[in-house]
Structures are given as structure tokens and as C-alpha cells.
Amino acid sequence: MVKKFGRVTGVLISLAILAAPFLVWWQWNAIYDWARLRDYTPPAAVSSLASQDTMTAYAKHLFYVNHPELESDASQFRTDCSESEKTIVLGCYHSTEQGIFIYNVQDSRLAGVQQVTAAHEMLHAAYDRLSVKERDYVDGLLQDYYNNDLQDQRIKDTINAYKQSEPKDIVNEMHSVFGTEVSSLPAPLETYYKQYFTNRQAITNFAAAYENEFTSRENQINGDDAQLTALKQQIDSEEQGLNQQLAQINSDRARLDSLRGSNQIDAYNASIGPFNAEVDSYNRGVAQLKSDIANYNDLVNTRNSTASELRGLDSAIDTRLTTQASQ
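Below the sequence we write its predicted C-alpha cells.
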């Protein structure tokens, strides 16, 4: 009995030794996450982003495992998020280095950018953790929505841009973009994203708010440009009409001078009234032209001011490296 027990024990130990590598592999994420989170306390700004994004406990776990960093220095951010200098990047996720970096946009008009970026990058980490079966299922949902239901042209343009910059990760990007920027998704996708957010609408509201800062100004500029074109045509037409009136006035004035010079007083007096009415009409036209030109110039200033605001917004999120002035 003792020998049999010893033999069984030896077999169990051998099996345990053989199984250990498979257990470690199977639990690799759990072991790795434990090591990453053991002494980690998220900075207040990072935990605030997770809270504002209504991340679930699982989503926070994925977010914190990547030790997210908010960076205000554009040069350092570009070092950590090494992308093409032709591309404006606001965040990045490194699947190998295990890191999330978020650009700390300072412009208060763009409040919400960091929140959307944080959720976007966390979803990349989540996508990495999907099993083959899960990924096939989610990929199918994303592709089906993109092919059949997506109506927002801006989102379409965003995905098309990713097709150029990251052609191998299109569905991965769809996974992050749809989850953070599309307010209403088909029920299966809404159900899927509930494992990451308790209120996904909060994130899409952030996205809509800061996007509106751009689109409202772009729409205003487009409207102003259309109005300026119409005003310019009106001013040109008024100028042409006034030039014709002035030529007629000069001709009529010469005729009056001729009548008076030849002592045709009755004809001269009869022509004074119509001539003065003609001059009054011309002067009113000149006043109207001056008013229209003033309105045109005011609208140009308004349009340029809006364009300046738009450039400021673009600059606030432009992390691309720029040339530096010499001493």
C-alpha cells in the first residue's frame, strides 16, 4: 500500500510539472495583469477619465493595466506615439509595450477629447483580449454595420482615412471608432459594448460636443463664403448700373449746359426736374453701394475671425512636429 501510494504521488507530481507550462500559458493575462497592477495606483486624472467614460470594472482593469499617461508636451507625446508626421494623433495604444498615451488637449472648447481618446485606446486593448471566436463574431457585427447601416459621412471619412494609414487594422479601428463616436448602434453591438461602458452615450456625447466646435465653424465659414459670393455679385451689378447712370448723367448735364448756353431757357427749365431726380437716384444708389461694401467688409472680418478660431482649434490638437526658429 505504501509503495502504491508513493507511485500515485509521483505520477501526480509529474503530471503537475508537465501541466505547469500550460497553466501558466492559460493564465498568462491574469499573471501579467497582476504584476502590472500590483503596485499601481492610477493618477487622479487617469481615474477621472475612466469614471467620466463610465468604464465598467473590466474596462478599467484593461485601461489601468496599460498604465495610461496624459501628456501635455507635444514633442514627448510624438515620441511615445511615433506616427507619421503627416497625421494628427491624439492617443495611441502599444500592444507589445503595453502602454496607452493620451495627448492632454488644453483648449477648453475641446473638452471631451481626452475622454473619447481614452475610451478609444482602451477598446484597442479590449480588442486584443478577444478570443478568436469572439473576434470573429464582433468583426462580423462591425463589418455588417459598416457595409449596410452606417450613414454618418464623417465616420465613413474617418474609416477611409484609416484604410490609408492603417490598412491592416481597419476592423480594429472600427471597433474603437464605432464604440466611442456613433451614438446609436444595432442592438447586438450595443449589447457587446455594455461589457465596457455602463453609459456609452456619455462618450458619444463628448465626441459630438467637441466635433461640433469644428463643424459649426466650418458650416459658418461655408455660409459666409456663399453670402460673400452673392454680395460680391450684387456689388458688381450695382457698380455696373451706377457707371451707366453716371454716363447718362454726364450726357444729360452736357445737354443742359448746351441749352443754357444757347439761351433755350424754357427747354432748360423743363429738363431740370428730371435731371435732379436722376441725380438723386444715382446718389441713393451710391449710398446703397457703400452700405453693401461695408456689409461685405464686415462679413469678411467675421468670416476671417471664425476661420482664425478654426485654425486655433486645429492647432490645439495638432501634435505634429514643427520647425523651430533659430537664434
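Residues 1-6, 15-20, 22-26, 323-327 have pLDDT under 50 and may be disordered.
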